[in-house]
Design brief:
It is a single chain. The protein is about 25% helix and about 25% strand. By secondary structure, the chain is an alpha/beta fold. Helix 6 crosses helix 7, helix 10 packs parallel to helix 11 and helix 10 runs parallel beside helix 12. The longest helix is centred in the first third of the chain and has 18 residues. About 5% of the residues have low confidence. The structure holds alpha-D-galactopyranose. The site of alpha-D-galactopyranose has 10 residues, from loops.
């Protein structure tokens, strides 16, 4: 009788949770609300790999401010692999390399903070990082306390040397450790998509990589010895076609750090930045600010394009059509606006003729559409920085190979 009674009591107490439909949802372990729009900043890896030091970080922070990048929204300075010594100390603590960082990591974090910026570090869920420095496996709580003591704001957490461990569990352990350490830290999962972090990452981290590493080319596969590849930016865009519904405020699909300013053409850099913006990917620059051209800076700080990336609706864009190498990509925006990109994937210049009235743009997942038949939209041509009529007229443009025309459509008032 007592058992029947307690079973009934359990069911009755569980009912409110069941009716809210949240009884099976995992409680969040991450610091919530730290990335309501995609994080923006700079990471050392794409240009410098492990050749990083205090001077580089300070110069980068200084230029982030003086160039206007901070005011355009770039806030995080993240040191990737290579900031530690090869061994932990006698107490098992990580040791910032004293030759690369003679002033110490705390002083460097303070310097970055004094510029109105935020500071991030890198480690790995495995026994060693990808470049062979001490990994965090077995030291999660100790490392999290160290990061909290430095006052860092962002942790990128990689997936090398993790044989035999479960990704969801490993990332959840570190997420719990960061929470227990008491300092809010954005948790950036870098698992490359092998274990589908989009399916379990939302309570665990604020963003997750969806692919192997980026390579500064439009659409190539760059093979490395040892059977792994890095990928041109359009390869990453195409790699995961069906996961846009998993991305949103505080839980972003991360298409990897930017290669803008790293050896691609001006047209390709514009296309890359446009696609990352339409995909609502984090915008983490990966170039050397000290030798940045004004063209690169103009791309990275284009306010209209950044507004599309940072749009409050937080919806990842998608491809609408592809015809003869000319692709149409869109992103629904807050207030009924749309971003539209015409991207020339081919090796030849193309003439675009787009009659809006005969086209349908529909986001079935979010139940949004652009009703060109009944609604007239004004057009802002973003890269040419000019108004370009309305959707009542056919849109025409010449688009060079690998170049893009990016528009913002706003409902005509
Ligand atoms: C992996 C990551 C890269 C970078 C390197 C560092 O390849 O995917 O982004 O962090 O490790 O070794």
């Amino acid at each position: 009788m007592k058992n029947v009674f307690s079973t009934l009591l359990c069911i009755v107490t569980a009912l409110p949770a069941l009716s809210q439909g949240n009884v099976y949802k995992q409680a969040p372990t991450k610091w919530e609300g730290l990335a309501m729009t995609p994080p923006m900043g700079w990471n050392s890896w794409n240009t410098f790999e492990t050749k990083i030091d205090e001077k580089l970080v300070k110069q980068t922070a200084d230029i982030m401010v003086s160039s206007g990048m901070r005011d355009a929204g770039y806030t995080y300075i993240v040191l990737d692999d290579g900031w530690m010594t090869r061994e932990r100390d006698a107490n098992g603590n990580l040791v910032p390399d004293p030759e690369k960082f003679p002033g110490g990591m705390k002083a460097l974090a303070d310097y970055v903070h004094s510029k109105g910026l935020k500071f991030g570090l890198y480690n790995c869920a495995g026994t060693k990082t990808c470049a062979g420095y001490p990994g965090t496996r077995g030291y999660e709580y100790q490392d999290a306390r160290f990061y909290a003591s430095l006052g860092i704001d962002y942790l990128k957490y990689d997936w090398c040397n993790t044989e035999g461990i479960n990704a969801k569990e490993a990332y959840t352990t570190m997420s719990n450790a960061l929470k227990a350490a008491g300092k809010p830290i954005v948790f950036s999962l870098c698992e490359w998509g092998d274990n589908k972090p989009w399916e379990w990452g939302e309570p665990v981290g604020n963003l997750w990589r969806i692919s192997g590493d980026i390579y500064p080319c439009f659409d190539c596969e760059h093979k490395h010895p040892g059977n792994w590849s890095s990928w041109g930016f359009m390869k990453i865009i195409e790699m995961r076609k069906d996961i846009r519904q998993y991305s949103g405020p505080d839980h972003w699909n991360d298409f990897d750090m930017l290669e803008v300013g790293n050896r691609m053409t001006f047209a390709e850099d514009k296309s890359h930045f446009t696609m990352w913006s339409l995909m609502a990917s984090p915008l983490i620059a990966g170039n050397d600010f000290r030798s940045m051209t004004k063209e690169t800076l103009a791309i990275l700080t284009n306010r209209d394009m950044i507004a599309i990336n940072q749009d409050k609706l937080g919806v990842q864009g998608f491809k609408v059509s592809s015809e003869d190498g000319l692709e149409v990509w869109v992103k629904p925006l807050a207030g009924g606006d749309w971003a539209v990109a015409f991207l020339n994937r081919s090796d030849d210049a193309k003439k675009l003729t787009y009659d809006w009235k005969n086209k349908k743009i529909e986001d079935a997942i979010n139940k949004l559409d652009a009703a060109f038949g009944t609604t007239n939209y004004t057009i802002k041509d973003i890269w040419n920085n000019k108004q370009a009529g309305t959707t009542s007229k056919t849109f025409k443009a010449d688009i060079a190979s690998h170049d893009v025309v990016a528009l913002r459509l706003s409902k005509k008032k």
